[in-house]
Amino acid sequence: MTMENGKKNRVQQQFQLKEVLLYFFRRKDPERPVNFNIRAMHGINKISIIIFLLGIIFFILKRFL
Question: Which of the residues 11, 28, 34, 37 has the least number of beta carbons within 10 Å of its own beta carbon?
Fold first, then answer.
């Protein structure tokens, strides 16, 4: 593995969105405990991720347009 190939591989790992997408579109697990606190926590996490991604998109658009 060359230096350039190793650097490219690390950059690809940083921009993988698989985990983010799976967080939003995963199936309900019947074994997972469900109560108000957990549902509220996941709701706040989803809102935070959406706002963060919108901020990144806004920053990129503002920077390059």
Answer: 28
Residue 63 lies in a domain: yes
- Is 54 part of a structural domain of the chain? yes
Buried b vs exposed e over 4-21: b needs ≥16 C-beta within 10 Å? eeeeeeeeeeeeeeeeee
Amino acid at 60: I
d(CA 26, CA 46): 13
Q: What total number of domains does the chain contain?
A: 1
Model confidence at 60: pLDDT above 70: yes
- Give residue 49's domain range: 34-65
Q: What SS3 class is residue 30?
A: coil
pTM recorded for the entire structure:
0.59
> Which tens digit of pLDDT belongs to each residue from 1-40?
455 566 667 766 666 777 777 777 777 778 877 889 988 9
